[in-house]
Every structure is written in C-alpha cells, then in structure tokens.
Write a structure and sequence with these properties.
Elements: H1 11-25, H2 37-55, H3 57-84, H4 88-109, H5 111-148, H6 158-165, H7 168-205, H8 207-216, H9 223-262, H10 267-277, H11 284-299, H12 301-326, H13 335-349, H14 351-355, H15 357-383
C-alpha cells in the first residue's frame, strides 16, 4: 500500500457502513408509513380538486352568499314552525310574502326621500371638496411664504397645484369610461343578486337534501360528526346575522338622531347609509362618514367637525357597548383577526370577498376549532402520534350528534 492510498476497510466494516447509510436515509417517524401508488394518486387528485375550486372561487363565493341569505331566512321560518307548528313550505311562503310587502312599502315610503337625499349628497361632494381646498389654501399660502419666501416657484394655492396636474380632456374621458364600467358592473351585480336570492330560496325551502348531499361527500366514519359541525356553523352564522341586524339598526337610529340635532341636511339618506355600511366593519363606518361631513362642510367647518365627533362617538358606543351586549352567543372574533381577514379576502376575492370576510371567518373559526383542533390535533396528542388520528374516537368535550333537530 502506497503512502497516498486510503486505508483499506475490512468486509464487515464495509457492510456496517452501508447499513448505516441506509438507516440514515430511510428513517421514517413512528406512525408514518411510506406512501403507495394509491396514496400518491389521492394526493394528486386532492391538489387537482383544490386548483379546480380556486378557478371556481367566484361561483363558490356566490353560493356562500346564498347560504348566508338562506340562514337569515331560516331564522323566522324556524320561529314560525316552533310556535305555530306549521309545515315548512307554509312558513317559507309566509316569510317571503312578508319580505316582499316590506320591500314594496319601503320602496314607496322610504325610497323617494332616500333617492332625493342621496342625489343631493352626490351633487354636494364637488362643492364640499372646493370648500375644503379653500380652507386649506388659506393656511397653505402662509406656510409657503414663511418657509420659502415670496420669490418661491411653488404654486400659491392647492387649486393651482391640482390644475397643473390635471387635464380637463383626460379627466372627462376617464369619467366616461368609469361610468360605462360602472354601468356594466351594476348589470352584472344585479344578475348576481337575482342568482343569490333564487339559490337562497331553494336552500330555505328544502334544506335537508342539500345537507344530506354535503354529508355524503365525507367519509362514512365522519358523517355523524360532520352533522354536528354543520349545525354549529349554522348556529354561528345565525347568531352573527341577528347581532349584525340589531347593531346596524342601532347605528342608523343614533346617526339619524344625532344628525337631526346638529341640523345636517339629508338625515334619512345618511342614517340609512350608516346602518347599511355598518355591515362592513372598520371600513364601512369610515366611508359612511364622508357624506354627512361633506354636507355639513357646506354650512360651516364647526358643523363638519361636530359630525366627525358624532360618528366617532357612535362607533365607540357600537363597538364597546352594543356589539358585546347583543352578540354574546356569537363566535368571538378578535378585532385584529377581523381586519386581517378583510384585507386578505379583499385581495384574494375582490369586493365581494371584502363583504363576505366576516361570515367566512365565522365559519372558518368553527371549522378550525371543531375539525382541526378537536378531531385532529386532540387525537394526535392523545394517541401519541399520527396513529391516534385514525382511531375515530371523539374528545370528551365535543358535542354529541343528539343535539341535531
């Protein structure tokens, strides 16, 4: 053996080294086995199904909107069945007739003053913007003179700055394009509303076949448990809808009374907008403040500041007094989680995702708590590994299937 040759190994050492390498690259955790062809095929099918669902996200979001409307319609239907023992078809028919009458009466009584006030609000926005610019210009000139002197080349007012940046022809062209796009969106939005209402009525009239179909899609060992989970999702959505209706009504009443006391015009339109936009937390109340502030700014700056203070008080009362009181049975949502969910669903799903963010979070929170934590993680910890997740046993604190109607 030469001086630069590596030392030779005995045959038994070579066999030990090869076995060590095999053990090193073939270590499998306890409870986990190698995936066979059928399991790989199932994984590929699952990924393909997820891609297909993502491509159909708009359709699924419309279907989820129909489920929310169906849950809202189901609340009075169940009340009628519970108190008067009517057949479900009769209860659904009564609820639909009452809703149609309310829509007709609202269109006749509330729609004309609302449309008139809302038109005045839209017409007042440009004038309010000019008034706001004039108020800012009064201080802007003094700041420019004090900082840069009288010989500065900066514009003497914000109005000149905007006129230097904007071109009338381009603005008009963009406005016309925006109006055409808005008309197209309104037409598509009307068709979506009709589709959502039709699906909601079908789901409310015959909920059992659809629930049975959803349960049969699950594995046979999990169908009884899925019934309980779906019932809890239904209850959570119902509680959220009731609390939201009460909260929005209180916000509309407080806004109407406060604006009437301050002497702000278009009280009916601003109060209804405050109640409707309260459906979108964190963002809706901010948008609803723009219209009354614009109208009040045309009268005097102090009245606009009073409107801002009024809406701040209303939102604090709604957030810290009304919402905790009327939503005691609702699924508890952290404010930071709600805001993050709104941003995430708005980016992924668009404006409808922003509107559906909170009900989606309500359902997802129930699914995570009941399916992921109770049915998977608790079994995993109790079983000492992945094998415990397949025992089919339910934790002691999980709801029993007997709670279903």
């Amino acid at each position: 053996m030469g001086p630069q040759d590596p030392p030779s190994l005995a045959p038994q050492d070579i066999s030990k080294t090869s076995r060590a390498k095999q053990d090193l690259f073939q270590v499998v955790p306890k409870g986990i086995t190698a995936m066979g062809f059928g399991q790989w095929l199932g994984l590929v099918a699952l990924l393909a199904a997820l891609v297909l669902l993502w491509s159909l996200k708009d359709v699924l979001l419309i279907f989820f909107s129909a489920i929310i409307v169906s849950v809202a319609l189901n609340l009075p239907v169940r009340t009628i069945q519970r108190h008067w023992c009517w057949r479900r078809s009769w209860a659904v028919a009564v609820v639909l007739v009452v809703l149609i009458l309310l829509v007709v009466v609202g269109s006749v009584v509330l729609a004309p003053p609302f449309v008139k006030d809302f038109r005045e609000l839209i017409e007042a926005l440009p004038q309010a913007m000019n008034t706001l610019l004039e108020l800012i210009d009064a201080n802007y000139r003094a700041v420019v003179l004090n900082l840069y002197g009288s010989g500065s080349e900066l514009p003497s007012s914000l109005a000149e700055l905007f006129r230097a940046r904007l071109d009338a022809g381009n603005v008009l062209e963009r406005s016309l394009q925006g109006l055409l796009g808005l008309a197209g969106n309104l037409g598509g939005g009307f068709l979506r509303v009709v589709l959502v209402v039709a699906l909601a009525v079908m789901l409310t009239a015959q909920p059992k076949p659809y629930r049975t179909l959803a349960i049969r899609l699950a594995p046979s060992f999990y169908r009884r448990r899925l019934q309980v989970v779906l019932s809890q999702c239904d209850s959570a959505l119902g509680n959220w809808i009731v609390g939201l209706l009460i909260s929005s009504s209180c916000v509309a009443v407080m806004a109407g009374v406060g604006l009437a006391l301050l002497g702000v015009r278009s009280v009916v339109a601003n109060a209804l907008l405050a109640g409707l936009l309260n459906v979108i937390p964190n963002i809706g109340p901010t948008i609803s403040t723009v219209f009354p502030v614009s109208v009040a700014l045309l009268d005097s700056p102090w009245r606009a500041m009073a409107v801002v203070v009024l809406y701040l008080i209303i939102q604090n009362v709604e957030s810290y007094l009304i919402t905790p009181f009327v939503m005691q049975k609702q699924v508890k949502l952290l404010p930071g989680l709600a805001l993050l969910a709104q941003f995430m669903f708005a980016v992924l799903l668009g404006p409808l995702g922003l509107l559906m963010a909170l009900p989606l979070v309500v359902v997802l929170q129930v699914l995570v708590r009941e399916v992921l934590i109770h049915d998977v993680m608790d079994h995993w910890l109790a079983g000492g590994g992945a094998g415990g997740a397949t025992t089919g046993e339910e934790p002691e604190d999980s709801p029993q299937p007997g709670v279903l109607p």
